[in-house]
Amino acid sequence: MRPLLRALLAPINHFVDFLSPRYCLICDELITIDNRINNLNSLCSGCFYSLDSAPKSDSIIDRMFENFASDDISITNAYSLFKLHEKDFAKVIYNLKYYKLWKIGYEFGLLLGEKIAKLSETKYDCVIAVPIHIAKKRERGYNQSEFIAKGVCEILKIPNYSRYVQRQKYTTSQTRLNSDERKKNIDGAYKIPAKSSNIFLSKTVLIVDDVFTTGSTINHLGNELLNNGARQIDCATLGIA
Length: 241
Ligand SMILES: [Zn+2]
Fold this sequence. Notes:
Layout: H1 3-19, E1 22-23, E2 30-31, H2 45-50, H3 57-67, E3 75-83, H4 87-98, H5 102-119, E4 126-129, H6 134-140, H7 144-156, E5 166-167, H8 179-186, E6 190-191, E7 204-212, H9 216-227, E8 232-240
Parallel strand pairs: 3-8, 4-7, 7-8
Antiparallel strand pairs: 1-2, 5-6
Helix pairs in contact: 4-5, 5-7
The structure holds zinc ion (ZN).
């Protein structure tokens, strides 16, 4: 933010801080104009800068080669913000997923969008948030990835096409499954309804999710999109496990 603009906005920001104080999710410190970065209201600058950055796209894609046959990989480039083994960042994701702190998703989605804008040379046609089954959405109240996608779309100025893809299979958590079991678990999970089948023709699509683990979910959705005529699939997540 420019110094003059910052000075002009300072009284307003102090007033907002006074009305609704915000605390860092990691260290519980009050977030003020002095320790806030950009528009992030969920982490203080100290904690933010202490997080481990995610590896570069090439090494994320290399990991996929360990889990999938090369002709089964649908993803060309993969972007991520932070490493999830960092317990502090895992706490952020946990809050996003289970404590209904969906605003975190949007805030970090903006940051993710900025990272992609800086690193990617690809011009995307649309974003898709990895869909969750309607029953799971009812249970949880929302799909956290949709809020991340909202932030990404805002920065990259591209439309969100999430509504054209459905999750038709209700699956249990993937976390305890090995890679073969994950593949079986996810098989046939996503559907593009017949009336939307032309939507992705020749499109370059960015899939957005909260966490990249083996890439199984994202890869599967990517293949479904390629089968429906998409040209290229990249992916972006907040964290990488
Ligand atoms: Zn902090």
